[in-house]
Amino acid sequence: MKMVGKRFPYYASYTIGSTEEGVVNGIEVSVYDDCGISRNDSSLSVAVNHLDNAYHVPNWLVTSRQCKTNTASNTYCRSPGTVPGIFISESMMDHLARSLSRDVEEVKKANLYKQGQVLPCGMPLQYCQISSLWEQLYQSADVAARKEKVAVFNQASRWRKRGFNMMPIRYGLDWLGFPYSVHLSVYQFDGTVAIAHGGVEVGQGINTKVVQVAAKTLGIPMELIKIKPTNTLVNANDAVTGGSLTSEVVCQGTLNACKELNNRIQPMREKHPGASWKKIIQLCFDEGIDLVTRDYVHKTSEYKFAYNCYGTACTEVEIDVLTGQTEVLRVDILYDCGDSINPVIDVGQVQGAYMMGLGYWLTEKIVHDRDSGQLLTHNTWEYKPPCSKDIPVDFRVELLKNAPNPVGILGSKCVGEPPQCLSCSALFAVKRAIESARAEIGKDAVFTLSGPATVEDIQQACLVEPSQFTF
After folding, report:
1. What are the Cα distances from residue 23, in Å, to 19, 97, 102, 223, 296?
2. Would you place residue 338 in the very low, low, confident or very high pLDDT band (cuts 50, 70, 90)?
3. Quick one: residue 142, left, alpha or beta (phi over 0 = left, psi -120 to 50 = alpha)?
4. Between helices 130-140 and 143-156, what is the axis angle to 10°?
5. I need a surface site. Which of 103, 144, 249, 467 has the fewest CB within 10 A?
6. Which residue, among 411, 395, 406, has the nearest Cα to 343 in the 3D structure?
7. pLDDT band of 436, cuts 50, 70, 90
8. Could you list the active site residues?
9. Beta-carbon neighbour count of residue 232 at 10 Å?
10. Distance (Å, whole) CA 438 – CA 445
11. Does 471 score more than 80 pLDDT?
12. Which of 372, 373, 418, 368 is nearest to 397 (CA)?
């Protein structure tokens, strides 16, 4: 942990102009990221491009700065730039609603993007579904009734408080100019298929999706297909695995390679209708037909983003005012994955991304020595990633149905990173609980809760004093 780079810390200051109803007219914001000694992997531009999140703001003035500090250089991690960018956006909306004494969720809803509006980067929103997702989750998660129950619970409980938050995301998928190749070989003895592609399996299920695409396109059982390890001889000049785009692009390459193979063997299929796959392959080999195909995919798009992913999340938490301990009681997520290639994998990705984000926002605090810059939280005694007991008691994830992505691959959308941006919903739910504790002692002023909101931070934010311990 001492030698590996960490996420970039961010700081933002802002001024918001709005109507009395909370409809935003314009935002002036300054964003800073702590690069450490080197700014090599800074994703500040990504954060800036997601400051609007899912909200239409007609006027922006954004200033961004990369800061050099006496700490080790920081690096990319899942959802670089988008996690802090969307958190800053949610913080601004939260602050606006509280300052106007209005319901936070109602202010967010009033500012959601609509079909045909244009992003700050100039991209028109042709397939914007965020309002539909918001309404669907609002009903399915029974938001209104649950918020009332939270209020009743907090009124009856002094030392344990609950909080509720609902938030949206808009995540722009950028092809980044990343190329990937797919090499497909069919063996004439038994008809088995071997595929080597330019992506790396890191738990995101890319190999399973590639096998599925190949099996469906070739019309053969998945058991006949094997994925070989990636190597730079077969898959030269391929990009890194990242950006939530690798699975999609590699699946496109697999689809193309399989179609090319189908074109080569189609005449033999027509000559021998009803013949098995193995027989067709042997006949093709005897006729000297090349059973090896390759495809190279280099995706580009007209705008900054190829398309946008949308999602909504509701998080309900309970905190112990005296200790600061947090329990995540229930999470509801509705995510737009287009036509999912593999819903089981994609739901797992949503769950895993949210859980990874819980650590980022609630437990994984980084501390450096103020004089030397040395990392002090370099082991699990000081650094606390989320564990099994941190999983929400009630965890509900659903993919949006009947929503194919017209510009995606096989109608799908990316899923690796966007859902992690929904995890800051937990921090804002904690903030609601703290507000209830502070209101009970007459200290209901607007305050800032930065991430991560650790046990210590939550306990201190509740402003507990010995004089409050009365019977």
Report:
1. 5, 10, 11, 55, 46
2. very high
3. left
4. 50
5. 467
6. 411
7. very high
8. 417
9. 9
10. 8
11. no
12. 418
Strand partners, 311: 169, 335
Report the DSSP pairing between strands 24-36 and 60-68. Answer: parallel
Residue 321 tokens read as 């005012």
Going by pLDDT thresholds of 50, 70 and 90, the confidence category of residue 325 is very high
Do 438 and 459 meet the contact criterion of CB atoms below 8 Å apart?
Answer: no
User: Which residues neighbour 207 within 8 Å (Cβ) at sequence distance 6 or greater?
Assistant: 201, 227
pLDDT the model gives residue 469: 86
List pLDDT tens digits, range 382-391. Answer: 999 999 999 9
Nearest to residue 245, comparing CAs of 454, 409, 41? Answer: 409
Give the Cα separation of 332 and 166 in Å (integer): 9
CB 193 within 8 A of CB 220: yes
Question: What is each CA distance from 30 to 61, 65, 186, 408, in whole angstroms?
Answer: 8, 8, 56, 34
Phi, psi of 264 (to 5 degrees): -70, -40
- Cα–Cα dist 239/174, whole Å: 14
Q: What band does 374 get if pLDDT is binned at 50, 70 and 90?
A: confident
Token couple for 286? 């005897």
The structure tokens 């063997």 sit at: 265
The token pair at 41 is 């992997």
Assign 3-class secondary structure to the chain. CCCCCCCCCEEEEEEEEECCCCCEEEEEEEEEEEEECCCCCCCHHHHHCCCCCCECCCCEEEEEEEEECCCCCCCCCCCCCHHHHHHHHHHHHHHHHHHCCCCHHHHHHHCECCCCCECCCCCECCCCCHHHHHHHHHHHCCHHHHHHHHHHHHHHCCCEEEEEEEEEEEEEECCCCCEEEEEEEECCCCCCEEEEECCCCCCCCHHHHHHHHHHHHHCCCHHHEEECCCCCCCCCCCCCCCCCCHHHHHHHHHHHHHHHHHHHHHHHHHHCCCCCHHHHHHHHHHCCCCCEEEEEEECCCCCCCCEEEEEEEEEEEEEECCCCCEEEEEEEEEECCECCCCHHHHHHHHHHHHHHHHHHHHCCCCCECCCCCCECCCCCCCCCCCCHHHCCCEEEEEECCCCCCCCCHHHECCCCCHHHHHHHHHHHHHHHHHHHHHHCCCCCCCCCCCCCCCHHHHHHHCCCCHHHCCC
**Cα 104 from chain centre:** 22
Encoded amino acid at 327, one letter: E
444, HSE (Cβ side, Cα atoms, 13 Å):
9
CA angle 420, 160, 142 (to 5 degrees): 55
Amino acid making up residue 233 = L
Q: How far apart are CA 86 and CA 26, in angstroms?
A: 17
> What does the pLDDT average to over 394-407?
95
Residue 71 burial by Cβ neighbours in a 10 Å radius (0-12, 13-18, 19+)? buried
